[in-house]
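Below is how a single chain appears once it has passed through the pipeline. First comes the sequence as given, then the structure the pipeline wrote out for it. We keep one example in the README because the format questions we get most often are answered faster by looking than by reading.
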Amino acid sequence: QLGYSKIEEDNALLKTLQCMGGNGTKEYFEVGGTTTFSPTNTRALKDLHGWRGHFLNEGIDDPKKFLHAEYVTPAKIVSLLQKYHVSKSLDVLSVDADYDDFYVIREILLAGYQPRVLITEFNPYFGLKSSALIATRPLENDRKGTNNKNCYFGASAMATTHLVQAFGYTPVFSNNINALFFVRLDQAIKLGMRIPSMDTFADVNT
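Resulting structure:
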């Protein structure tokens, strides 16, 4: 374990990139996950492999280190991607907005962004086999009461998978706790990547 992420996502990401043909252009973009830049899913890419990108979270702001204090919502995410000049074909996108990851990802994909690897969290309390998600927050709502310290947040693994499959993605890894990795199916097929079945993902009901 490299120790840059919460539950070995950094190792899984490096292995996924290796299967997907390597580093590409070395561009990442990460939303949330922590109020510091450690642990995060992409820090190992930046610190150990010379990648470039941006990390957005409400708690930090250090532009020289590409860390930005931003309040991320589905309505704002595309403008934030444009603000930080994120390319449509970036290599890694990681979304951990704590509450409405599903809707944030939907807006990103609808805007035409096509990361090679997409990482997000799911709500384990929904179980693996159900396709369920919470209602998005009204625009006027603040952040109070919308974190994942209770069971009402996010979407199930199946709901998230159904969403991204409609945009050409397939699941390749889960830590069986709260993280899902997806890759672009067309690229994976061209590279001869072995695609796991959804049946191989363990049920994570708690």
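The radius of gyration is 16 Å.

See the next section for the split statistics.
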